[in-house]
Amino acid sequence: MFSFKFKNKKKNNLSLSFWVGLLFVFIVFLLALISFIWTPYDVTSLVISERFKGPSFSHVLGTDHFGRDILSMIMVGAQTSIAVALVAVGIGIFFGLPLGMIAAAKRGTFFDDLVMRFNDLIFAFPALIIAILITAILGPGAFNAIIAIGIFNIPVFARVARGAALTQWSKEYILAAKVSGKGTFLISIEHIIPNILNLLIVQATIQFSLGILAEAGLSYVGLGAQPPIPSLGRMLADSQTMISIAPHMAIFPGMVIVITVLGLNLIGDGLRDYFDPKLRGSS
């Protein structure tokens, strides 16, 4: 039987920042979902006669240097960024959570030291540098970007899971579970994970926002999704030499990245405050 330790959750309403962040993210996600079935224009169509057009009724956000509709490019580009970041976070949880749980259960052993030293090695380098290094070796592309970002997420979730699990292993209800004859695996599944789920959810929102930024950064330097697949980062890269001619080419993709990352961070802050009333009272 699962043992949850969350208390008095009914008294802790979600903060305004959470709902504002959720609204931002919902708008971006909605645009990405709509792009699966419809975009105002074909993102692969080049209309040179329409290039550098500013926002208008026919092109709400204007056109780029190839005459492509920027709104359509943003919709599909958001789809790419979300997909890459979402799968990368999934990879981090899938591999990092078991590593952290096993390390916590075997605290002080060789396996625990190995996991922590691996974490220290990864954290010694900036995340984007590691992602650039991996994609430079594997080659550019959305799939390799997922692998690169996902690899960095593994030690992040391993460390969070280990730290939170260590706290739970010292609780009395865990001792009671041991006395009842439950093994390490069952205790971890039935008791530890449900009680650290809040921390994992908050960390996932943070890593999701970092994944969006990492994908944009990789695409900006040409190591992310490749043409003709639109990417928010590459849209910024394409616009940097034309900022004086068509500033809208940089402004709108940049705003989408900012809104998405800000929204995810606000959601993470709101969830953190919700799960920890002490932080909510001090904020």
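(ticket continues) Second input and output from the same batch:
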Amino acid sequence: MTFEQIFKEIQSKKYKPIYFLSGEETYFIDKISDFIEKNVLPEDQKAFNQTILYGKDIAAAQIDNAARRFPMMSDYQVIVVKEAQEVKDIENLVFYAQKPSKSTILVICYKYKTLDKRKKLYKTIEENGILLETKKLYENQVPSWIEKYVLEHQYEIDMVASSLLTDFLGNNLSKIANELDKLFISLPQKTKITIEHIEKNVGISKEYNNFELQNALMRKDHLKAQRIVNYFADNQRDNPIVVTITSLYFYFSKVLAYHYVDDKKTVASVLQVNPYFLRDYEETSKKYSKAKLVEIIALLREFDMKSKGFGNVSANAGELLKELVFKILH
């Protein structure tokens, strides 16, 4: 089952005896476990019927024993196992999973890892409970996730604002959701979120960010590009060079790929980009030849290594970025 299907069932009070939540994207794991923890039991029943366990402190047998207890004056007891990836003998939970208690909702948060599909525990939970394996979204998938999240909270967001958030926060959904939630507090519902809102509430400058640097390089606007890198050099803590290089690498890689797509009608799906930004890729492809783009990508790799200390004796991040942008433009 997908995250959306699982969450919808839980909201409808259709519970399974075991939820094994695993994988790299912890946002989805936390969303399900937090909802169950906060909403399944009324407050007056939680003291006796809700237990939080931590994987580094327990073994599988203790989870088994807790899950077999009967609830007190309640239909259910809820057991949430956090940091379950620290349980060394997790596979021994198979004995409980073979016949789980119908009055227990056992939530296992197995972050950053997944169960071995070849082993019995995986197959048993698949038969008797819910297995969720989460994966990090690719950055090109994040803007659409942002739009959906915003709509669910009865707001709107323009394309540039969602791209700016993605560029600043990457694919860390927990951070993005946290920043959006803070925005929702300060704005009335049905507001369309713009870059002005982002700048004021999230702390991203609408003039000095990686998105604007891309635009300056796209237009070969030397003066604007220089202003931005000077600002980055003076504010390195808020504008780490590794994030800028990564952003530029993905952008110029897609521009290079644009050159090789014969059917421009399909280019958005081939490049996996929002059609709204296709004009930017088209404009950049006119200003940078295939050979120059290959050179830029090699430069980005070289300066990424230099920023990490390889082949670099004394230049700081600001100096490296200035040199990199100069070479991209010349």
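Agent notes: The first helix runs from residue 3 to 11. The CA atoms of residues 32 and 192 lie 28 Å apart. Closing as not reproducible unless the customer responds.
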